[in-house]
Design goal:
- The chain is built from 3 helices and 8 strands.
- By secondary structure, it is mainly beta.
- It has one domain: L,D-transpeptidase catalytic domain-like, CATH 2.40.440.10.
């Protein structure tokens, strides 16, 4: 017998739909329909690949006070971490702080106040599923040469986004 009721994981399912590719970077919409959330977001920069298409599993949520790349202009500083996948580590969701419109591969939420996302992800302890896909109508643009970190810096490649 199957149930028509959503499971806890279904209720915690997010989608990131990429509709623009700018060099190695992507822009798209992060949505969590069960919570009524939808925001524009960026992933990657000119020196770091955007998040891979596929399903990512959230494993934890943490506060990152004063850590600029993880802060929005309203002062919310946090990071919802995905399990290592697709040969990548330190990937997750956070406000698009630091250099705007650029991350080291994470999904950076572009909102000036990410309180709703913070509270929703914190309530699950970061345990969510996020399906990353590319829109059928994705637009390709040339690289905009925006860097969150130095493209050649080993320290940037080895840290979380």
């Amino acid at each position: 017998m199957t149930s028509s009721h959503p499971t806890a994981l279904d209720a915690a399912e997010l989608t990131y739909t990429i509709d623009q590719r700018i060099g190695r970077k992507a822009r798209g919409t992060l949505a969590w329909s069960a919570r009524g959330l939808s925001s524009r977001a960026a992933s990657g920069d000119s020196g770091h690949d955007a998040i891979n298409v596929g399903t990512w599993t959230g494993i934890s949520f943490g506060e990152r006070p004063g850590d600029a790349p993880y802060c929005d202009p309203s002062g919310n500083c946090w990071f919802s971490v995905f399990a290592d996948a697709y040969g990548r580590t330190g990937i997750g969701i956070h406000p698009d702080g630091g250099v705007l419109d650029a991350t080291l591969g994470c999904i950076g939420i572009s909102d000036t106040d990410t309180t709703a996302w913070h509270d929703a992800l914190q309530s699950t302890g970061g345990k969510v599923a996020c399906k990353v896909s590319e829109s059928d109508a994705v637009t390709i643009f040339p690289d905009d040469e925006v860097f969150e970190g130095t493209a050649d810096s080993k320290s940037d490649r080895d840290k979380s986004c």
